[in-house]
């Protein structure tokens, strides 16, 4: 297992380098001059030149990229141009909100998606299977921002059950904080519920076709025992992988969700940075989200190897 983990970790290094190269390149391809945007049209050529020199924008692109790599290796993501604060500090302040939102949405997606997928497979080609399949396709197809706005109209404006914006305050009690996360979590989890339900249903149907399931039925085992002990355990192996990958999807989807519900997380910070041309902050946030996504994939692979010994053996692990 240790050999497998080490090899998977080494594979992350070139991926991370490629991600940094793409992030750096995309920031340079964005039209407009950051110096002119931030200093304004009234800035003198001398001020613009000094600003570009201070940020190293007057150097060749390969030199800028090498400087960027060196700074990242030392934990320096630069200084925000609009907040006048260290980028890494800003990300640390906002990261807990985004992680809390993404993890709560993932938990909700698993708690709803897995049972729905199992229930659909139990009623294969029946009425309930059709209903759940349609709902899953609807969940995958509907944009997150539309779901969020619809929830605000229904549960906030019409029913008045839940708050629509902000984080809430711990001074007002636990429910005040939890209530502010309910709608954003549900909106963010909507697509993932459909994805996990579809994968669970397909995986269960595939497992139920296997010979050992037919053998279990032939031995006279109770259907419930066959489903719980034989089918479900094996069917959930690919679902584990899909669920882990959904966390990366939810981290990306948090950009829209946090903007709609005015949550002070990485998503809202990202939108502000893009709108105000703070390329250093955008670079830092995208890099942190990419690193989180890579490590999520890494831990999912480890979990998958624990469940399926064939994966470990393919990498020469025990």
Brief account:
The chain has a single domain (87-314), classed as MetI-like (MetI-like fold).
| Tally of discrete structural domains | 1
What would you report as the Rg, rounded to the nearest angstrom?
Answer: 24 Å
Total number of helical segments?
A: 13
Q: What is the CATH C-level name?
A: Mainly Alpha
In round numbers, the mean pLDDT is 78
Largest sheet: none
- SS elements, strand count: 0
3D shape: globular
- What CATH calls the topology is MetI-like fold
Describe this structure in words.
The protein is mainly α. It has one domain: MetI-like (MetI-like fold, Orthogonal Bundle), CATH 1.10.3720.10. It contains 13 helices and no strands. α1 runs antiparallel to α12 (279-307), α6 packs across α8 and α7 (144-158) packs across α8. It starts with a helix and ends with a helix.
Question: How is this fold's topology laid out?
Answer:
Elements: H1 2-29, H2 34-39, H3 45-55, H4 61-73, H5 87-122, H6 127-141, H7 144-158, H8 174-208, H9 211-218, H10 223-260, H11 266-275, H12 279-307, H13 309-314
Helix pairs in contact: 1-12, 5-6, 5-8, 5-10, 6-8, 7-8, 7-10, 8-10, 9-10, 10-11, 10-12, 11-12
Features:
single chain; 318 residues; mainly alpha; MetI-like fold; 13 helices; 79% helix
């Amino acid at each position: 297992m240790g050999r497998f983990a080490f090899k998977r970790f080494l594979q992350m290094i070139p991926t991370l380098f490629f991600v940094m190269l793409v992030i750096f390149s995309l920031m340079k391809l964005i039209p407009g001059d950051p110096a002119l945007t931030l200093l304004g049209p009234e800035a003198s050529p001398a001020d613009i030149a000094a600003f570009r020199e201070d940020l190293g924008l007057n150097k060749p692109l390969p030199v800028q990229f090498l400087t960027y790599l060196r700074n990242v290796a030392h934990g320096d993501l630069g200084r925000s141009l609009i907040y006048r604060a260290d980028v890494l500090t800003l990300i640390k302040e906002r990261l807990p909100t985004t992680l809390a939102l993404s993890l709560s949405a993932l938990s909700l997606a698993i708690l709803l998606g897995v049972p729905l997928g199992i229930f659909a497979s139990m009623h294969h080609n029946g009425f309930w299977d059709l209903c759940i399949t349609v709902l899953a396709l609807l969940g995958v197809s509907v944009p997150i921002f539309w779901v969020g706005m619809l929830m605000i109209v229904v549960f906030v404006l019409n029913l008045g059950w839940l708050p629509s914006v902000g984080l809430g305050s711990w001074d007002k009690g636990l429910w005040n904080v939890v209530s502010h996360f309910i709608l954003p979590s549900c909106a963010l989890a909507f697509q993932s519920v459909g994805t996990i339900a579809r994968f669970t249903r397909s995986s269960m149907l595939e497992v139920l076709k296997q010979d050992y399931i037919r053998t279990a039925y032939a031995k006279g085992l109770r259907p419930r025992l066959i489903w719980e002990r034989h089918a479900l355990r094996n069917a959930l192996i690919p679902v584990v992988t899909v669920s882990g990958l959904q966390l990366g999807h939810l981290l990306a989807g948090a950009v829209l969700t946090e903007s709609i519900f005015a949550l002070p997380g990485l998503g809202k910070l990202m939108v502000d940075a893009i709108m105000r041309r703070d390329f250093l902050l955008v670079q830092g946030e995208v890099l942190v989200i990419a690193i989180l996504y890579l490590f999520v994939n890494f831990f999912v692979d480890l979990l998958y190897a624990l469940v399926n010994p064939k994966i470990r053996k393919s990498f020469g692990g025990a």
